[in-house]
Amino acid sequence: MDEASVARGGLAPRLWLAGGWLLLALVAAIFAPLIAPQDPLAQDLMLERLPPFWLDGAEPGYWLGTDSLGRDLLSRLIFGGRIAFIVAFAAATSACLLGSALGLIAGYFGGWPDRIISRIVDVWMAFPPVLFAILLVAVLGTGLSSVILAIAIIDWTRFCRVIRAEAMSQARMDYVESARIAGYGRMGIMLREVLPNVLPSVVALLSLEMGIAVIVEAILSFVNLSISTDDPTWGSIIAEGRLSIHQAWWVLVFPLITLILTVLSFSQFGEALKARFDPVLR
Amino acid sequence: MSANREPCLDIRGLSAVLANGQRVLRSVSLAVQPGEVRALVGESGAGKTMIGKAVLGVLPKSVRIVEGEMLIEGEDLGRLDPKARRTLIGARTALIPQDPLTALNPSRRIGPQMTDRLVRILGWNTERADKRIRQLLDEVQIRDPERVLKSYPHELSGGMRQRVLIAAAFAAEPRLIVADEPTTALDVTVQKQILRLIAQLQRDHGTAILFVTHDLGVVAKISQKVSVLYAGKVVEEADTEALFAAPQHPYTRALMTATPRYTDPYASLKPVDESVLAGLTAEIAAADQAWRPGHG
Ligand SMILES: Nc1ncnc2c1ncn2[C@@H]1O[C@H](COP(=O)(O)OP(=O)(O)OP(=O)(O)O)[C@@H](O)[C@H]1O
Ligand SMILES: [Mg+2]
Description:
heterodimer, A: 282 residues, mainly alpha, 0% strand, disordered N terminus, B: 296 residues, alpha/beta, Rossmann fold, four-stranded antiparallel β-sheet, 11 helices, globular, binds magnesium ion
């Protein structure tokens, strides 16, 4: 009992900090038109490369400064969050559903379903993921939906491998056998008895995958393969910031910080959630 | 015990092999009469658990039954289609497992876990099942059922979990319970209590039990009949009293001199005399040479 409460106390800040940042970023993204101080696309050559608010020469209303075209950086980050979150949720959820379902089936049933699924995973994993993504987007064409699709197509194996291993060890447990003796069918046992036990891992992986999706989207934007070049994305802002690093460091640094905070928060949030979810760890 | 009653469990000439063709059960025959406790003793690896799993229909995929029959209350399991077999096994049998931790689903609370089973097996509604569960928890002397029902398995002690599993096993009034070393994973002090509980509930409910153990002290305490298993073969079977008074088979005799007192179960089964084992092994090897599976 004591150990458990100590563990809970240790986990709470992680959960709240990570969750807090994600919530803040998400709310900002959803209400971007209301929250963003400026139009993220409005260029003004009179306002180019304004520094952030605490430096000399900053303008009120342009909190994090502007880029080399005079666009407000904060507003661009807020709007960029929209695409980041859409990609994170859609891609991670699709990868999660596909990968977890196949992993659960392979791990619980074993035998030939497992052999087939594991072989596919092996082949899939042989491709370097970033190259795979660039190739896929090149084939599917740029645009939001192909980015989402590409990430889901590549990353379902992450879920599949972990969930397969967990389902396999659960399937060996005596409680599964007891359910069998009581007359439950295999499908019922998989969904009723095994699934709840792998769910904490699914949740943790899902959150982690959202962070990964954010990075992949940023990388694709960075190499100009993602969404149309007009809409700001974190990756495209970073790409632009790189060009003016010596004149305006903030254009590179703030989107990087935003990206890293978000990705870290996703992974920490997932871990903390898993610890909460799992009755054995709790 | 009237002789013409149908046995609750009747295993006739059951043989099973591993994927590599190695025999794990060698023409095993044993019967458990209604309301009777039959102990199945033998050293580790003898195949005791295999027999239990065969009866309950949960043999590992690598083990294949090649001959023999198993009848539960006269119904031949081999003649039933898989679904009917599952239903029959679910309704008439239950398991008290060895490891009370992994036998409970770690992510579900005790209450719903137990109630679900009853609803499933007996088709009762949740309220009735819940009432029944509470009654059984009382029988296994759990004093704070509210707390236990709300707990997750890991929040209970080993002895408590085993009580829960005993309650669950008896709850649906099965005719036959397979108890596979139900006390081995527990503390010595708890072992006695659990054994006493099983004996108590067995008498009250009149349930037949196939009681798997490697401890002759436990055999003496709980059973009326014994089958001694060595290398997948029943080498002796007798009334418990008769067995202890006059063991017939050399292996049984060796087992008895090797078995310490019940008070020290962890020290049970000192190595059995080498010469006895050598003789047995030769005998079994010869039998395997001559053996052909009845079918398949
Ligand atoms: N899953 C399995 N696949 C193949 N062989 C197995 C499997 N489980 C057990 N065996 C083998 O079957 C034989 C009988 O094992 P079993 O578990 O029935 O022994 P036991 O009498 O219950 O022993 P213990 O007292 O250690 O529980 C052993 O030789 C064992 O190695
Ligand atoms: Mg065993």
